[in-house]
Amino acid sequence: MRAGFQRLPSAQLLDFQERIDVAPFALLVEPVAVGLRRPGFAGGVRAEAAEPEFPEGGGVASTTKKVLGRTPEAEMNFSKIDNEALLWRYFWGQKGGCIGETSVIALLIGGLLLIAFNLINWRVPVCYIGTVAVITGVVHWFLPGVTPTPLFHILTGGLMLGAFFMATDMVTSPITGAGCVVFAVGCGVITSVIRIWGNYPEGVSFSILFMNALVPLIDRWCGRRPFGYVAKRG
Questions:
Q1: Per residue in 161-189, pLDDT tens?
Q2: SS3 sequence, the chain?
Q3: pTM of the model as a whole
Q4: How confident is the model at residue 76, as a pLDDT?
């Protein structure tokens, strides 16, 4: 193995280092580039974003006209999709959605098993879901006609699937506890912003991909210093 190993020329090493430095940026740009190269893929994303999630009348994001203020009209703006009966149906999985994301109870059982066997870091799903609940709860409290209740955001879409089974990927998530908290809070903030103010009804996948690109920086900022470490003074 060692006999066949050859040292790379300095120019190639420099080029390799430059490729590593731009890797996070490339991870963000690549999905857009793929969409531009494949018109069918980009068209599918646009069609999915434009298709109403609740055609009966309710909806989230751009599918429901937002009502500002705390008026009775604003408080009833999402009543067709956000009420006690429907929330229970969402919890048991009696709703439409992608394969694997509809049954909240099944996702909870699987996620708790992963935490119990110490296969994932519990900070990621807890902080991710908690951040979404806090942001959507605050916005709903002041502007009930702009976004549904936090329970609606938790029980619908891909939040539970993403929090337990996507954001916790051991290769693309931070390695420290503090880093996991920063990573999960960032995912929650981006998801909430896209869901409330974006033109797309879901933001889980986008938020996880974006924060994955920042994981090397998060690990650098939140890394633990060895005992007795002294920073070099320039």
A1: 999 999 999 899 999 999 999 999 999 99
A2: CCCCCCCCCHHHHHHHHHHHHCHHHHHHHHHHHHHHHCHHHHHHHHHHHHCCCCCCCCCCHHHCCCCCCCCHHHHCCCCCCCCHHHHHHHHHCCCCCCCCCCCHHHHHHHHHHHHHCCCCCCHHHHHHHHHHHHHHHHHHHHCCCCCCCHHHHHHCCCHHHHHHHHCCCCCCCCCCHHHHHHHHHHHHHHHHHHHHHCCCCCCHHHHHHHHHHCHHHHHHHHCCCCCCCCCCCC
A3: 0.71
A4: 80
